[in-house]
Specification:
By secondary structure, the chain is mostly helical. The protein has one domain (4-121). Helix content is 81%, strand content 0%. It is built from six helices and no strands. It has helices at 4-30, 34-42, 47-65, 70-90, 96-112, 114-121. It is elongated and about 50 Å long. The two termini are 28 Å apart. The mean pLDDT is 92.
Length: 125
C-alpha cells in the first residue's frame, strides 16, 4: 500500500504533467510565430481567436490545478480536447495526439479524484 507522501507526490507529478502539456500549448498560442498562425489559419482561426484559445486553456488549466475546482477543470479540459478532436477530424488531420492527451487527462483525474472515478464507474447508482 502506498504511503500518503507517495500518493501526494504522484498526485502533484501527474498534475504537473498535464499542466506542462497545456501551459506549453497556451504559451505557444500567446507567442505564435508565422508558422503557427499559418497552421491556425488552415483550421479557420485568425490570430485573435488563436490567442483567445490560449486564454481558455489557461483558465481551464487553473481550474484543473486547484484541488477544489479540479473536477470541473478536468471536464473543461476534456471538452477542450473534444473540440480539438472535432477540428482535427473536420480538417483531415490525425486525431491520435488529442485522443492520447484526453485519455491522459481522464487517467490523471481518476487518480486525483476517487469520487469522480466511483461516480463514473458506478453510474447505475
Amino acid at each position: 500500500m502506498k504511503s500518503e507522501k507517495t500518493k501526494k507526490i504522484t498526485y502533484w507529478a501527474l498534475t504537473g504533467l498535464v499542466s506542462f502539456i497545456f501551459l506549453g500549448s497556451a504559451i505557444g498560442k500567446f507567442t505564435a510565430n508565422e508558422e503557427a498562425l499559418k497552421m491556425a489559419a488552415g483550421f479557420g482561426l485568425d490570430a485573435k481567436t488563436y490567442t483567445l484559445l490560449g486564454i481558455v486553456e489557461i483558465i481551464c488549466l487553473i481550474l484543473f490545478i486547484i484541488p477544489r475546482t479540479g473536477i470541473i477543470g478536468t471536464l473543461l479540459l476534456a471538452a477542450y480536447m473534444g473540440g480539438a478532436i472535432a477540428s482535427h477530424l473536420e480538417h483531415g488531420v490525425s486525431i491520435v495526439a488529442p485522443c492520447i492527451i484526453q485519455s491522459f487527462i481522464f487517467l490523471v483525474a481518476f487518480y486525483r479524484f476517487p469520487e469522480l472515478r466511483i461516480k463514473l464507474l458506478n453510474s447505475n447508482s
